[in-house]
Write a structure and sequence with these properties.
Layout lengths: L1 H19 L1 E5 L3 H6 L4 E2 L5 E2 L1 H7 L4 E6 L8 H5 L6 H13 L3 E6 L6 E2 L2 E2 L13 H18 L6 E4 L6 E2 L4 E2 L8 H18 L4 E6 L5 H9 L8 E6 L7 H14 L5 E6 L25 H15 L5 E7 L30 H5 L6
Length: about 375
């Protein structure tokens, strides 16, 4: 009789660990694809509803980005998927919550893409005195969250900024963790955003997101600067083509666990190429193939190795695929050139990597 009881106890322990982990993706473009009549299919070719398919794969959380005034974004950025204003996010967030997923909100604090190479000041704050910018960030963050809460889309996790390794709202708060320039303003902007999150969504976890997973010295310097900031989770982007091998990520995760033992880590963005078809930026079919082949099997190899590595790190509590919903079956939306989603751009079929991805919360 003791063996069955032991097995039950082990099963309960595995379930408890799985429940603590979040698995999902940034599905910010899903409504746009659905409006374009994209057909999503399972691996056998049967038409499926994406959210239902993700749930069957064990996903329990979804991420959505929010721009300030995306209607003011450059035309080429709009063609790349910049359209998520508060109305769009309110509708998608409510849908995510109704479907039973946790909801991660990603504030970009820009009218367009915010990443390490660009953090454009929103047009509405152009000309606002530096000393008033934290108040502007607080008011905007608070109003956005109140709108989401009122629509039944209260976020469970909130990113205050997107890939803000080099600051935000350039040029005013452009900085580096190795440079004191603009650090005071940058810290004040983050503090204002975090305070609004606590005031409106006190139960939500606040994430500070960078993309230097392959550079421990930079990562350490950045988060050391935030010693007094009120936040909960270290969020990292990790892409093998830009952030070195999985072993380098592993070393960073080990170092984070030692230096910041009270801060869980989430990989809030990851993805890998399965093709360079239609890729306007690729210089050859094998570009970025240093660690994994640019193929369906190569994408699956990456996913399998990443999941196996992350499961060895107790401080990693979340894993999110960026743009899993990419689907060229509806025509030429966004040019079908990114080729890092979890559905084949040619057929709309679920790719094999999706099954390895689910292993993050499985046994």
């Amino acid at each position: 009789m003791r063996k069955p009881l032991l097995l039950l106890a082990l099963a309960a322990s595995v379930c408890a660990v799985a429940q603590q982990r979040l698995l999902g993706g940034d599905i910010s473009m899903l409504p746009s694809y659905e409006e374009s009549k994209a057909v999503y299919r399972d691996s056998e070719g049967k038409a499926v509803k994406p959210l239902e398919m993700f749930s069957q794969l064990g996903w329990n959380a979804m991420r959505v980005r929010l721009f300030v005034d995306p209607g003011l974004a450059p035309a080429d950025h709009k063609d790349e998927g910049v359209c998520q204003d508060i109305g769009y996010v309110r509708r998608l967030g409510a849908r995510i919550k109704r479907a039973g997923f946790r909801f991660m909100l990603d504030f970009h604090y820009s009218d367009t893409w915010a990443d390490p190479g660009k953090q454009f000041m929103p047009a509405r704050w152009s000309g606002v005195p530096r000393t008033a910018l934290p108040d502007s960030v607080y008011a905007y963050t608070r109003a956005s969250l109140e709108a989401l809460v009122g629509a039944g889309a209260a976020p469970d996790l909130i990113q205050v900024g997107n890939e803000i390794s080099n600051g935000m709202m350039w040029p005013e708060a452009k900085t580096s963790p190795f440079d004191d320039a603009n650090q005071q303003l940058f810290g004040s902007l983050l503090a204002a955003g975090c305070r609004a999150c606590r005031d409106v969504c006190p139960e939500a976890k606040i994430i500070i997101h960078t993309e230097k997973a392959g550079d421990w010295a930079f990562t350490k310097a950045f988060y050391d600067r935030l010693a007094t900031l009120d936040y909960d989770v270290i969020g990292l982007s990790y892409y093998p083509m830009w952030h070195k091998a999985v072993g380098v990520l592993s070393a960073t995760l080990d170092s984070l666990a030692v230096r910041y033992p009270d801060k869980p880590v989430m990989i809030v963005e990851t993805a890998a190429y399965y093709s360079h078809a239609n890729d306007r930026w690729a210089t050859s079919p094998d570009q970025y193939a240093e660690f994994y082949p640019i193929s369906i099997d190569g994408q699956r190899m990456f996913t399998r190795e990443l999941v196996a590595e992350l499961r060895r790190h107790a401080n990693v509590t979340g894993l999110f695929w960026w743009f899993p919903e990419e689907n060229g079956s509806c025509g030429s939306m966004m040019g079908n050139w990114i080729n890092r989603g979890l559905f084949d751009n040619r057929t709309g079929r679920l790719l094999p990597a999706a099954y390895d991805f689910m292993g993050f919360i499985g046994e």
